[in-house]
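Repro:
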Amino acid sequence: MALRTLATPQVSTAIAGGETMPALVLSKTSRNVILYDLTTPPPVQRTLESPLVNGAEGSTWRHASVIGSYNDAELGSILIYLRELAKP
C-alpha cells in the first residue's frame, strides 16, 4: 500500500529539554516553535519556546509506524480521500 511507504521529508527531529521527538514543524519564530509531536497517534500540536528547541533534519519516523492498525482496504479509502482533497 502506497501510504505505508510514503516519504516523510518534512519530518525532522526536535530536541527540547532532553526530550527527542519526531516532529513536523508548523512555524518557527524567535520566541516559539509550533510543531506536531509525532511520538503518539494522533499527533499532538505543541508550542515550545524557541531557545529551548534544537532540531536536526530528517527522522527515522515513518507512516508505517502509526498506520499498522489499518488494513489495506481502509488505507485505500484514506488514499482516495486524500487524492480528492489534492485536486485543484
